[in-house]
Amino acid sequence: MAIHRSLVIFAIVALMVPAISLATDFVVGDDYGWTLGINYEEWAKDMQFFVGDTLVFTYNATFHNVYKVNGDDFQSCTVPSNNSLVFFT
């Protein structure tokens, strides 16, 4: 019985490992990164993204910044009053 239980656990783990290892990091905009003048719909049109993939947004922090905003602030392009600048490490 213990061998049967061990085989079931091994099978479950074996099925999970490929799903985890197939995750892909995509740099949005490729070599151009996240910037003005790039057609990101065109960039993404032939891409296939899956659960577990990571979209990486690279940008020049000298000229750009990232704020955590709600939907209304995003739509109106308003910097939040608490200046919740997001820092990435």
UniProtKB/TrEMBL annotation:
One cellular component (GO) term of this entry: plasma membrane
Segment forming the signal sequence: 1-23
Record keywords, A-Z: Signal
Occurrences of domain Phytocyanin (ranges): 24-89
GO molecular function: electron transfer activity
Coiled-coil stretches: none
The keyword Signal is assigned to this record: yes
Pfam families documented for this protein: Cu_bind_like
Full protein name: Phytocyanin domain-containing protein
Organism: Gossypium lobatum
